[in-house]
Predict the structure.
Amino acid sequence: MQGVTYKCSEKSHLTKSVSIMNRNDTTARIAHVFRGTFVHSTSRAAVEMLQDCVLGVDDQGKIAFVEKDQDVDNLTKLWGFETSDLKQLGQYEFLMPGMVDTHIHASQYSYTGTALDLPLLEWLKTYTFPVEAKYNDLEFANNVYTKVVRRTLKNGTTTACYFATIHTDASLLLGELADKFGQRALVGKVCMDCNSGVPQYKESSSECKEETDRFIKELLKKEYPKVKPVVTPRFAPSCSSSLLSELGEIANSNKLRIQSHISENKGEVELVRTLFPDCKSYTDVYLKYKLLTDRTVMAHGCHLTDEELEIFHETGSAISHCPNSNISICSGMLNVRNVLNHKVKLGLGTDVAGGYSPSMLDAMRRTLDTSKALTIQDPQLKTLSFEEVFRLATLGGSEALSLDDQIGNFVVGKDFDALRVNVCVPDGPIDLFPGEGPKVILEKFLNLGDDRNITEVYVAGRRVVPFTDA
């Protein structure tokens, strides 16, 4: 994969075909026009920097054009906006696509930053399941879910793939809150009919199916434009064979996305081998029940074999790499380079609260750290670059969630999900020095920046941060 290309693109591969179509659409109205530097990923380059460019967003929240700065006069006539409408980005500002968190447990946000002293299966029994059982209390759910949606948006997560809990009404509330604050979200009501460790936190197989059907029906009935259901078996050890089969049927008959966990921890892998002796591997369990599709994202995958990765490639299934969690609860280290070499779709996830940070910037940093740690163990392994990791957090995440036809980069016709980044905010975390160009500024933001540097967040053309609370 190439690293960085500069200058405003030659218009053709990004803008020409759709831009011409939009120009003939006299009903389109321009809602936002930005001038300056835009940074995104394409199929050709991990990072492409569009300098001295103008980007227009129409009133439907879609990118209408990306053109060179010198074309402004022609653009004003063509699109009917005034030069006074231009939002000029400063010398140390740029726009980048919104970040995509492909795996986060909204229901675990209340204890983020704590409870990191146990391995996975003990961690679930001791901390996670007792907390998640509280979500039958909608007041409790509203408090936590409001905070996690606001916190992730403020940190630049424009799209989140959420695990909720087994509680249908609380899961519907999470969807309502994501819509209220303007976040693009996939929301999953968790399904689990096996839980010997905390037996009060589970449903019967019939309840799982009935409540999943109700959740999907009621969430779709709301017609939220950016919030959709995702079928969510927690993971194979917490689901009976019959439940996995039913969930596969529900997902495939309704063409819905699927999310779960796989091969996070060696003890978990051994448990799956014991529970499903007729299956050749953990991957084979999900394959058997038709849960591996081109709409599936599986979290972790630290201990997948090359044979299993081949199945992921063949089915079009994706992996969510959650490096903070993988290290924090000592699960393992995913070899991202090997996953990419197998041409498996891959995005990044925070995995709150196994991961202690809800920030996708942290997910990028931990991804680089893990890659370097693996290179220390095997010097023949090519370490990931910060450019590649930037792509995984944006376009890669959109591909993993099968949303890349809508979001992920600044291609004309896609929704404008974007962050306005200022690396020189007062009292901010970054110091700059003379002669530092756009690539250095981007790298400093990815390694040193935080929510103070993310001054505006847009989802489908709507500015959602700063918040406009009454």
In short: The first strand starts at residue 2 and ends at 5. The longest helix spans residues 205-222.
